[in-house]
Amino acid sequence: MAKTILIVDDSASLRQVVKIALMDAGYDVIEAGNGQEGLQKLDGRKIHLIVSDVNMPVMDGITFLKNVKQHASYKFTPVIMLTTETSDEKKKAGQQAGAKAWVVKPFQPPILLSAISKLILP
Hints:
globular, 5 strands, five-stranded parallel sheet, about 120 residues, alpha/beta, Rossmann fold
């Protein structure tokens, strides 16, 4: 059975690029346009990994991440932050909130896929 990845990003074009790379690698993909939408997608189904932007309207990625970690079913779901943010302060906030990896945009799909494969158990 394919592993499911949730992509949370306010850029539809970026979600599309990530989705194509993930689907080509054999993953199922769920999309959300911001953190609040992302939380609505956490409805009990198994999600193996989350890729989230940091800067989004409605609910940013760090707040979203903190909310995910409060969810009993998703507390241990690995989260990769995919963002234009490079400041150590933001990275630290992401790490403290529970992010497992930090990938800077523009990204190379093989780098993202490599990070994902290390975080998703077979």
